[in-house]
Amino acid sequence: QVQLVESGGGSVQPGGSLRLSCVYSGATSNINVMAWFRQVPGKEREGVAAIYSGGKTKTHADSVRGRFTISQDKAKNTLNLQMNSLKPEDTAIYYCAAEGMILGGLSRAFDQSAYSYWGQGTQVTVSS
To answer: Which own/partner contact pairs does 62-67 have at CB distance under 8 Å and 24+ positions apart?
Structure first.
């Protein structure tokens, strides 16, 4: 089994920054893809950013590109999401996800059904 625990959420003003972290444990040796998703009440969960084993392949959603950066610290078994220039529309619960292998590669990186393991989420609120 794989366990994922998110942290770092909070409330900030527009233009502010937050850094989310996801510590993973358990049978993690076969994890090759990790991602951040977010969800607001009444809407579908959407992909934010994903990173593949080795850290060389990354993808970010158009809505966050240039503002958010996904990274992984394998020594600490931690996935991070640096969020800068936050906007009110970034308000959501952010989830960490992991999968051993995704058939289709990058084309399915933001398909939530492709991921087997999920954290409980951390709330991010951006408001004045």
So the answer is: 63/89, 64/90
